[in-house]
Design goal:
By secondary structure, the chain is of the alpha/beta class. It has 3 domains: about 5-175, Glycogen Phosphorylase B (Rossmann fold, 3-Layer(aba) Sandwich); about 205-360, Glycogen Phosphorylase B (Rossmann fold, 3-Layer(aba) Sandwich); about 390-488. Helices cover about 55% and strands about 10% of the residues. The longest helix is centred in the last third of the chain and has 100 residues, at about 390-485.
Length: about 500
């Protein structure tokens, strides 16, 4: 691309996920450094917040008419995010263009509009999770097939893409762009600590990054017990860090209620990712439920215990799960013991973290270099296709008609179900009548057969009596005849 190329950066779908926002911030920062003339527009949930953070135009992630217009006005659509592409939360293809849809349906919907409007599609740091349904596998495979550039988040994501029919040579294995993020300033961390009622020079901080994921929620009782034990045995102070804007209050309050009031503080949700990284870096140890909580801790320079939801609870108490960032194998596996073990070695762990994070940050930087090179090499599209003014009402009309058709379809389905139910009831009634008639005929036949058998038995008895009488008469005649013969 030449001149001021227009890039639409998507990856936020309204779930308030800090990993999505961190990936987008890392890409915006990295692309600006490499391609200063880029005109970036970011898909956002809280548009005002993202505009303030990144100083870029935004478009709402919940309104497909606006998204279609933004895609029409872009030279390229870049999809990135902090979560796996997975249908674990469900995937309904018919919901792809419904306002407010989230998850995989939102990502695939963006790709469908990009391809339909003939915009180059780039997948940056694509993490491919387990796809359980044929619809989801088809959707992700089609999405990747139409991408002009794919950076898989890891080898497993690359393997899954290849299984979906994507050419292996077309997939580059990169690393998480969040690792290229620079943490916020020390002054900003001081402000955050003061707002929580902590001194700027507070020491002994242990951050706990919380998520609202049901799988990660299974660790809460075990985590509460481990933190209680740590606070009882050490001088640690716990800082609770919500990872999503939708983390339920009861999740935070459950942990707060288990710890002494003066040894636990809670952060308000919605802070900028780089500021979260800086805050985690100020802590001496981090316990992270979501993976990107551990990644942001690494960006800040703090050792982290990542409770991976992909392993058994008894084993999910340790390694960060990133190349070069893992605790030694002989560390305890019990969470409480491992937390104490890490606390006692926190200085050593922090010191050993530096080279590993530097290597991963270097890999993330190289991935950003290649992404920028790809974007720079794409052909420029016309400044305007004059479709944007038409797309909003057209898409609104399409969605409205689709909903009308959907409602009509539902009505027809209900009517068909009602007719089928009525026919079923009629058929059941007919079958019951037939069965009743059959039972009556069977009873009548049984009665007649019984009567016939009785008559036969009576006749047999009468015949038997007459035969016996005949035989008696014959015997008497024979005896009389024999007597006469002997007398003569």
């Amino acid at each position: 691309m030449t001149g001021r190329a227009r890039i639409l950066l998507a990856g936020i779908d309204g779930q308030g996920h800090l990993g999505d926002e961190a990936a987008v911030e890392a890409l915006v920062t990295g692309l600006r450094q490499r391609l200063p003339d880029l005109r970036l527009t970011v898909v956002a949930a809280d548009e005002e917040r993202v505009r303030t953070w990144l100083e870029v135009p935004t478009v709402s992630c919940t309104e497909w008419a606006a998204l279609a217009a933004a895609i029409d006005g872009a030279d390229c659509v870049v999809l990135s995010g902090g979560r796996e592409l997975s249908d674990s939360d469900g995937f309904a293809p018919e919901q792809m263009l419904e306002d407010g849809v989230r998850g995989l349906a939102h990502t695939v919907g963006m790709a469908v509009l990009a391809v339909t409007q003939q915009r180059p599609l780039v997948l940056a740091s694509a993490a491919i999770g387990r796809l359980q349904t044929p619809q989801a596998r088809t959707a992700v495979g089609t999405l990747a097939h139409h991408a002009v550039h794919i950076v898989a988040a890891d080898e497993s994501s690359r393997s899954r893409l290849v299984e979906l029919g994507v050419d292996a040579a077309h997939v580059e294995v990169g690393t998480d762009p969040v690792l290229a993020l620079r943490p916020g300033t020390a002054a900003r961390v001081d402000e955050i600590l003061e707002a929580m009622g902590l001194a700027c020079h507070a020491s002994g901080l242990v951050a706990v990054v919380l998520s609202s994921s049901p799988a990660e929620g299974a660790y809460q009782p075990m985590l509460a017990a481990a933190l209680t034990d740590l606070v009882r045995k050490t001088s640690a102070t716990v800082v609770l860090v919500p990872f999503q804007t939708e983390v339920p209050a009861q999740v935070v309050e459950h942990l707060r209620g288990r710890l002494p009031a003066n040894r636990v503080h809670a952060l308000v949700a919605g802070l900028r990712p780089r500021d979260i990284a800086a805050l985690l870096g100020r802590c001496e140890l981090v316990v992270a439920l979501p993976r990107h909580g551990a990644v942001l801790a690494a960006v800040g320079g703090a050792p982290a215990l990542w409770l991976s939801s992909s392993t058994d609870a008894a084993q999910a108490t340790g390694d960060l799960g990133l190349a070069g960032l893992a605790f030694v194998p002989d560390a305890p596996t019990d969470l409480s013991e491992r937390l104490t073990w890490a606390w006692e070695r926190r200085t050593e762990l922090r010191r050993s973290l530096g080279p590993a994070t530097a290597e991963l940050a270097s890999r993330a930087t190289r991935s950003l270099d290649r992404l920028a090179s790809t974007l720079a090499g794409l052909p420029a599209l016309p400044e305007s296709l004059s479709l944007a003014p038409l797309l909003a009402p057209a898409l609104h009309g399409l969605i409205k008609r689709a909903r009308v058709v959907g409602f009509a379809h539902q009505r027809l389905c209900r009517e068909a179900e009602a007719r089928a139910a009525a026919q079923h009831r009629d058929l059941v009634g007919q079958i019951e009548d037939r069965d009743r008639l059959v039972r009556g005929l069977q009873a009548e036949l049984h009665a007649k057969v019984g009567e016939r058998d009785r008559v036969i038995r009576d006749l047999q008895l009468e015949l038997s009596t007459k035969v016996e009488e005949r035989d008696r008469v014959i015997r008497e005649l024979q005896a009389s005849l024999a007597k006469k013969e002997s007398g003569s």
